[in-house]
Amino acid sequence: MIELIRTNDLVLISVIETILQAENIRYFVADQHTSAVEGSLGFLPRRILIDGDWEIRARRILTEAGLIEENPRG
Q: How buried is residue 55: exposed, middle or buried, by Cβ count under 10 Å (0-12/13-18/19+)?
């Protein structure tokens, strides 16, 4: 699994989840249960992980939607 995005923005996570679901791309939101540990303050980022086989397609879709940078690793 590769990290698609890391963010504290719960609205952005929700939007990305909706898009990935619509495109039938399986994903996993890591670290979402850390809010219980941090007291729901939202300072620990959550990560959206996907299978590496879907990375190019997912990045293209989310870049076209203006939700992620074109080359966040560079």
A: middle
